[in-house]
Design a protein that fits this description.
The protein is mainly alpha-helical. It is 57% helix and 0% strand. The radius of gyration is 14 Å and the shape is globular.
């Protein structure tokens, strides 16, 4: 699965059910859904990529982020970095 497909897969899941896939225990839920959708022949590195894509999507779209305990430090903030 390439990065674009993973990104689209994660966005669809989170937008369809943000309470489940955008909550504190969403890593387990998204891993279970991934295995159901793509079978048990998955690579661990692909699973890590799916979880990273979900965390990145939630940081960029805080309206879907229902995490309390495991909320990212940068969720809902834009990083303003100036290069000199």
């Amino acid at each position: 699965m390439d990065k674009l497909l993973i990104k689209e897969y994660v966005e669809k899941l989170v937008i369809d059910n943000p309470k489940l896939y955008g909550g504190d225990y969403s890593n387990n839920a998204i891993a279970e859904k991934y295995v159901k959708d793509f079978g048990t022949d998955y690579k661990y590195s692909t699973m890590e990529a799916v979880i990273r894509a979900k965390n990145k999507f939630l940081e960029d779209n805080p309206q879907y982020d229902f995490r309390v305990k495991y909320k990212g430090k940068n969720t809902g903030t834009k990083k303003n970095i100036e290069v000199e």
